[in-house]
Design a protein that fits this description.
TIM Barrel, alpha/beta, 42% helix, six-stranded parallel sheet
Length: 757
Amino acid sequence: MTTLHFSGFPRVGAKRELKFAQERYWRKELEEQDLLDLAKALRTRNWQHQAQADADFVSVGDFSFYDHILDLQVATGAIPARFGFDSQNLELDQFFQLARGNQCQFALEMTKWFDTNYHYLVPEFHADTEFKANPRHYLNQLQEAQALGYRAKPTLVGPLTFLWLGKEKSEGFNRLDLLPKLLPVYSQLLSALADAGAEWIQIDEPALTQDLPSAWLEAYQSCYAALSAVNAKLLFATYFGSVAEHAPWLKTLPVEGLHIDLVRAPEQLDAFSDYEKVLSVGVINGRNIWRANLNDLLDKLEPLQAARGDKLWLSTSCSLLHSPYDLSVEARLQEENPDLYSWLAFALQKSEELKVLKRALQQGRTSVRAELEASRVAAESRAASKQIHRHEVGQRLAALPANADQRKSPFAQRIKAQQEWLKLPLLPTTTIGSFPQTLEIRQARAAFRKGDLSLEQYERLMEKEIEFVVRQQEALDLDVLVHGEAERNDMVEYFGELLEGFAFTKFGWVQSYGSRCVKPPIIFGDVSRPQAMTVRWSAYAQSLTKRVMKGMLTGPVTILQWSFVRDDIRRETVCKQIALALNDEVRDLEKAGIKVIQIDEPAIREGLPLKRADWASYLQWAGEAFRLSYYGCEDSTQIHTHMCYSEFNDILAAIAALDADVITIETSRSDMELLTAFSAFKYPNDIGPGVYDIHSPRVPEQSEIEHLLRKALQVIPAERLWVNPDCGLKTRAWPETKAALENMLAVTKKLRAELSN
């Protein structure tokens, strides 16, 4: 009998119930017990869906109030000592303070979970870090599921990936040296789950899909030899890439089963054809929304099942955390584009796809004849659709002149032309783009979408908000202003709605971090720009002030990475199509007198392949796409870009090759750590390191901002240094925004006075 199991399910609920409850709790509008009750109801619903899909095991431990790596820090006692909290008796408020910071401590650093748009909270490791087991998080969920009659499989990230994802916060040690202290704690966690009745425990080690140093690879055997003493069967899980090169020693690992990702790396199956234990194959894509071709999958799975029998397990490639919840609620999409709707599958539909595969393998294809026929029809419909390909888009790409992605002059020449008209002071100040999205703004957008506001009424409201934002910035005395992005629902969705080749859902939310959810567009066809997207708002904002107004665009790589992307052509081609559409916008902004233009690329590091051997190709086409978005600009037009919450140290040459005149980067949570690398690399253009963390509600003291700016001045020449927050201010409230910016400006003026003496 083929076993079906899950590695994880979306946490936030079908309609983001958890998000709204969390935020009400943070505003003290909801009692803790009410939040706990809602979370329990969401978990129960997830298990019901998994059971309805004929799952042999439901996944437990995957639910989190904020982040699963933060849960593991608590479970291992590895929370930062600087908070002064007791991991054995951590209160829910304290848990959220670790994630969001408080008035005394800045929050844990946040960065991307491998090459996804999910953000995890980075563990802080010191040479004297001590670990202590607290299995409560996993035990509670296991016992909840058992009480409901479900056969449950706890899932937690493995010890080597846990250490790999953390950072050394004291000098002179390697965090791998902590493994001997960590392993007994992991054994205690696993033993507690086994004692509570867990037959199988899934341990995720996705770090193995990256280029680990030899010492880390060598640690796997001894690590799992120690964990194998636990009285439960261990399923060693990898995903996001191939582990074929490690197959010889993985086959000898003392675990009872192995999970591999056959969506991202189908070729690796051959390397495990002779694996003698349970082989779990991730055949349904946990990260994209395209319906699987079930007939093609069965062609591959039937001989595998015949050879392996009950040692074959079926699952998604990875946790469904990265997938929207339910396609069936997308009535508008079904009505407007029934063909596209028939090509899609969200978490619940992916669960049903697994159910069909399991039944076909156990009872034959005739038992699911209707489902397989529907899958065939959808696949053929998509392949033959005339919605997808547009001849003129391909022609434009093919006709680009040689070196189209290169600026007319080098930076040293351009910056002189820019300074002649900008006339900015030393340490120029700006923000990253968005200002608080108030309830009134969101209500106005919602009313306009429903037809309760006319276009004229809506535009008047947006103009009023833009004027308010401009006046606030003038009062703060910022140097380069922004219009505040009141009209934008999301930095990617907004542009996708105005581009050809994109489609949208109403409830297709996925978690980005904490209570922050995004609704990625669906790129299903060739991309072009039918009309201007931002010019009207930026030009209006500029008309209100004599100060410099900055145009704001999302870059091609980020639009690609933060969308659900078509899989029938190369991602490189899609990205360059987006770049040329954005280039039309950049040229129109320039014509409208907006000559400082920020093209955000926070996702450029996220898109980096997990194996270094694939980096050069990706960085080449990603860089070319970014440069194509502004090709043909005048030297006097200043191009900015923004990047945040990723590690950039190892791709600085590629970032420099983007040739943006100014780069703004996140550095506050890492205490300006990243700037050291920029300095050592001798980054050639202007830099604006973020001087306070906008993802935390706390207002930074002037002393904190001054500390960070003085560190920046040690490595970046003052004439090339900009001052700005870490990221956009959309998620913050106005009182804290104004207070934080006032502190930022006060420190800047103090340092300007010092530098001018």
